[in-house]
Design brief:
Elements (H helix, E strand, L loop, with lengths): L2 H4 L4 H16 L19 E11 L22 E2 L19 E5 L27 E2 L10 H4 L10 E12 L6 E4 L4 H4 L24 E10 L7 E7 L2 E5 L2 E6 L6 E6 L11 E10 L6 E6 L4 E2 L11
Amino acid sequence: MSRTNRFSMPAGLLALAGLAVAGALLTPSKAPARAADDPYAALPSSLTLYGVCRDFKWASETGGHKDFEFVPSGGYGHYVNMIKDDLDADGKPAFKSQGNLVSKEAVDASGRNVISTTKSYLAAKTGDKAGTNSTSNGGALTTEAAFKQWFRDVPGTNLSKTVPIVLVRQPNSNIYSFSDKTDAGYTAKGGFFPINGELFGNSPGQSKNFGFTFELDTEFTYKKGTGQTFTFTGDDDVWVFVNSKLVVDLGGVHSAISQTIELDRIVGLEDGKKYPLKLCFAERHTTASNCRIDTTIGLMAVDPPPVSGLFD
């Protein structure tokens, strides 16, 4: 048998093989999973916001602030009524009292901690359960004048710098999250410590800076009935304002606590309009600093104010 004949294929089989190859070339392969399968793929993958961090010395240090490394006379814990329901004329939290210690958290029908819905600008919902708190002075901070310095640049009392935070969209959802437990810039620091070794430096005898505040301003478009929510989990004092109204109230020196606000509860918001959101955070005591944000609100960056760090 010749070399050619030994390796030849019958004409009929050759024709069938040719059709098979042609068919394989014309038939698309099964498509792999695509990002388009994510119903929220059109949303940005992350949101970068900019806040101001202000550094304070402890009360025991020369030039220190008496509210930092401070023990409330009523003991450590969650306090309410430290600040007024409305921002002041400068757009800052306004002192109300030395606070009332919470003994039982208010919760919604899903068991999430919420601010008291007895406030006139917040609508109650079926399933809400009221919390309870002491009516006596809790001594959660010192004076109105001292508190006024927390979120303002005060030469000789604090130093400030701009600090960004990045909220990352969770897979296949419209939830954006920032957590010091997962953010690459904070995991090695062991918590929310944005100014370790900076400004006034670390707290006495510590490898971290435990005495600072963080003020974050942003804005969003309200979309009625779409389930826009904002949840904060952390410590110490945390307050969130929407349209200048207090909607998250986690005052006091305490371990990490969560509280959620549903935007549809806020009386007076108009569908499609833009509104400001402000978050005010204070770290006033050693042990831990936790910061986590989970939100379905499309928060937008706004220009932060000038900081003292620009001129140091």
